[in-house]
Specification:
This protein is of the alpha+beta class. The protein is built from one helix and three strands. It has one domain. The protein has a three-stranded antiparallel β-sheet with strand order 1-2-3. It is flat, with a radius of gyration of 14 Å.
Length: 61
Amino acid sequence: MSEGNRRPYIGRISKYCWTDKRTGERTPGIVLSGAHGLAAHLTADEAIQLADQLVDLAERL
């Protein structure tokens, strides 16, 4: 399979504390990474909401 035909994929999930470069504010959360780098940084509440949505959708496949 050529590189152009690969599905986008979240290949790594890890805890990460995001630091805003402008303000120095730190936000603990979870990083979703793929082949092209950072895909998202989610707070705990955002991660739980996304997980619920993923389960709901997966059950409908």
